[in-house]
Amino acid sequence: xDAILGAANDNKRPDVSRLYDGWTKRWVQxxxxxxxxxxxxxxxxxxxxxxxxxxxxxxEDAKFYALSARFKPFSNENETLVVxxxxxxxxxxxxxxxxxxxFPATLNQEDMHSESQYYIMFGPDICGxxxxxxxxxxxxxxxxxxxxxxxxxRINKDTHLYTLILRPNATYEVKIxxxxxxxxxxxxxxxxxxxxxxxxxxxxxxxxxxxxxQIEDPEDKKPEDWQDSEFIPDPDAKKPDDWNEAMDGVxxxxxxxxxxxxxxxxxxxxxxxxYQGEWIHPEIDNPKYRPDPTICHYHNISVLGLDxxxxxxxxxxxxxLLTNDEEFAEEVGNMTWGLRKDVEQQWRELYEEMEKQxxxxxxxxxxxxxxxxxxDIWGLDxxxxxxxxxxxxxxxxxxxxxxxSGERASVDQKEAHFEQKDEL
Length: 424
What we know:
Elements: H1 23-26, E1 27-29, E2 39-42, E3 55-58, E4 63-74, E5 81-88, E6 95-97, E7 100-104, E8 120-127, E9 132-140, E10 143-146, E11 159-166, E12 171-176, E13 179-185, H2 186-189, E14 197-199, E15 214-216, E16 231-233, H3 245-248, E17 255-257, E18 269-271, E19 283-285, E20 301-310, E21 316-323, H4 326-335, H5 337-423
Antiparallel strand pairs: 1-4, 2-3, 3-21, 4-20, 5-11, 5-21, 6-8, 7-8, 7-20, 8-9, 9-10, 11-12, 12-13, 14-19, 15-18, 16-17
């Protein structure tokens, strides 16, 4: 496993080929609860080099995980901090974390848990279809702050490289697979501080301020002959002679459609000559705002941890790197993730194709087996049907004979009856 944990203020470049065979000694399992999921060192199903591509793999479904490694404490004050690692969700993760956390030196590793104070949380966080978020949570003045942007992570089964860069000029950059996906100013993209400007609490929109872009023409008048009644009383209708208003009320004739009806009249619309534009609330300097040049300056960074929950296990974490050198981080990414990605992808695609073929063959065999079973059943039914058809044919042949003999017997009886009558 290429577990490179270099201090951010250490100018020495670690040997990328170094493998930590004694990872169980370097990484500490938390004992905060007894049922944490277990990690193992594994390269998974798809890799370029089976030994070199081994990483820390989650092995138990529906488990919390709490594993951490300690290194010499350092600070990123006046220094660039690069947090980089790779993760492969070859199990097809449906809900779970794939991020890392940076902790202060005060962390008790054997008691690390989800409520333990951390400085940085960075990496994929997936739960449900479409909810694939790339978390960048930073600690400042006793609170955790999420990035205001919606960042998406990669959710396929390949290994992906995640890189977070915090610079001393209070800017940042996030990269996936050594390509920038976002960046900017820390103060702009996190709500670390109160806003620089606020609306003037004493400002009020003038009562006569006219924001109407268009108005009805006050000089436009409805024509005298404009008919806006859709129905009118029938002029030819007559009140019945026997109509009694005392009994029947006031007589009202029936209504008929107005042939001169033009619809509801409305004055034409014109540009408002008094339009002043939208009133903008004036802003003033926020008296509560104070610039903070120490945003995301952390001291005694000393532990990198995997504090996760996963429904479906199988994620492989590898290539952990902390450094102050952006170019070096990119170089390490190319020498680790970069060397394996194409071979791993090709192998995965080949494996999946073979699995599809295997499933198709098994499905075919299952269908053939079911078909053979059904044919056996159908074959018995056909024999029964043939016997029934033969019986039906025999019955059909015998029926005319029986009917004929019956008719003949009836005729003989009639003839005997007449002969007996003649004798009488």
